[in-house]
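Glyoxalase family protein: structure tokens wanted.
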Amino acid sequence: MSIQTSGLHHVTAIGGDPQRNVDFYLRALGLRLVKTTVNFDDPGTYHLYYGDEAGRPGTLMTFFPWRGAPRGRHGTGQATTTSFSVPAASIGWWKQHLERLGVEVSRISSRAHEDALTFHDPDGLVLSLVSHEQDDPREPWDNGVIPVEHGIRGLHSVTLSVTQEEATAGMLVDGLGLRFVDQQGNRFRFEAGAGGPGALVDVLVTPDAPRGLVAAGTVHHVAWRAPDEATQAQWREELTDRGVSVTSILDRQYFRSIYFREPGGTLLEVATDEPGFAIDEPLLELGRALKLPPWLEPDREQIQAMLPALDLPDENNPEFAEQRRSHQPAAATQTSAAQVSGSAATEARSA
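Answer:
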């Protein structure tokens, strides 16, 4: 393959209640909601994008939240863990923070020069916070709630569960340009570009695990970065020449996308870095209003009538974050913990 990805672009999952989703990812994890839009293929459903201040590629976690959606099943043929990067000295702080919110967390585990803390979101999605011995230079979103020195830097890695690794490894290496770097037991690690947090994927071989079922609490697809549309078009042509079934290039407003499945079953995407999330609202106002692409704008009234009301917490606004840091830094985190909905904490414990 002549083209190589530089790393992860975003991970998209299926959620349940959209308000509960917003409360958890903004207030418990301290991410910023950088775009409130809809699933372009199903406009009666939100598409919520979380990330750093500007929603840069490699920091993004996105959701299709369907209220009342049935729970999915974790298993082979899907991404089973989404991991975020945090500073090396922050794992203990995050364990205490999440436990204070009523989220059940694992014991801190160590593997390959990394410490990891695993837990579930309110819909049962498996998440992990990973500290890596390699410094992560990305700046966290500073919302005045999560101390900036502990803030999430972006995506760290994803774990793909498969029944056997050979064909999936072949797609990662020959189709995406990743390289194999390590094996620990039944876990195989690959990295893209310069490597490190945001450019890693683990392939976990679990031949006796059930086949995964994509629904609430599971990952829908994993997206990898392409620098521009010309590179993406060439990439699509090369994949097609290799016999891979690839979609046409789709306009996702904030990037362009192609989709295909790796042999193990996980849906993959190649997404362009540009144009980004500030093309239809100012950086300071990201996520505050429902944004629709031009071809859906004529149906705005009907679409809004189908969507449940969504109350965006003040923590998403830079002005509020600055005010909170200035006037009540000591109480900020405790107040935020109390504001996370009881249903989120309860469901996280039961996941």
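The longest strand covers residues 42-51. Helices lie at 18-28, 91-100, 166-175, 229-241, 300-306, 318-327, 329-339, 342-350.

Cheers.
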